[in-house]
Design a protein that fits this description.
25% helix; Alpha-Beta Plaits; 5 strands; two-stranded antiparallel ribbon; three-stranded antiparallel beta sheet; binds iron/sulfur cluster; alpha+beta
């Protein structure tokens, strides 16, 4: 077999330039074949759903939007060490570190904290490496149904602390649940 005839997919077809017959030039057979394919698809199981009325089940290993965690006292866990940014293959994370002031001890758990923490959701591939790299258990990809919303403005995909830090009410709720269990 010569290299010219090898087809990796097995679907290679030789194209010939032979003149069409009268019946071929009417395209009736070709149109009928096309219609048969279309009709056949009408009876196949649909792969699309009517979103947003219908929603698919999330996979148990689904990785949703990131959340910057708080500890049991509601303080931000992140110490702006930068390990998440270093481990990110998409270079999606940027941050700015600040020293914690004495009067801010109730806000930040560590002596250093991220005054700016941003994730570019257009770059992120939701691999979870930032979560694995974090020594403070400060960043998690939410397993629940928190998805990054669609938008037509690129700027809006840069998520800052306002969107990433765990809501205080959620931290209080978690603490109460932990105490009860
Ligand atoms: S999930 Fe992966 S790509 Fe996204 S920010 Fe974390 S490390 Fe980067
Ligand atoms: S989220 Fe974790 S790894 Fe990233 S800067 Fe904060 S403490 Fe460091």
């Amino acid at each position: 077999m010569s290299l010219d005839t090898v087809s990796l997919s097995g679907r290679k077809k030789e194209v010939s330039n032979k003149k069409m017959t009268f019946w071929e030039s009417l395209y009736l057979v070709a149109i009928a074949k096309g219609l048969v394919i279309t009709i056949r698809h009408l009876f196949k199981r649909k792969v699309t759903i009517k979103y947003p009325e219908q929603k698919r089940e999330f996979s148990p290993v689904y990785r949703g939007q990131h959340m910057l965690m708080r500890d049991d006292e509601g303080r931000e866990r992140c110490t702006a060490c930068g390990l998440c940014a270093l481990s990110c293959p998409a270079e999606a994370i940027t941050m700015k570190a600040e020293e914690r002031k004495p009067e801010e001890k109730h806000l930040y758990r560590e002596e250093k904290y991220a005054s700016i923490y941003e994730i570019n959701m257009l770059r992120c591939i939701f691999c979870g490496l930032c979560e694995e790299a974090c020594p403070k258990q400060a960043i998690y990809l939410t397993k629940s149904k928190v998805i990054v919303k669609s938008n037509s403005n690129r700027e809006d995909f840069i998520y800052g602390k306002d969107k990433l830090v765990m809501p205080l009410e959620m931290a209080i709720q978690n603490t109460n649940q932990n105490k009860a269990s």
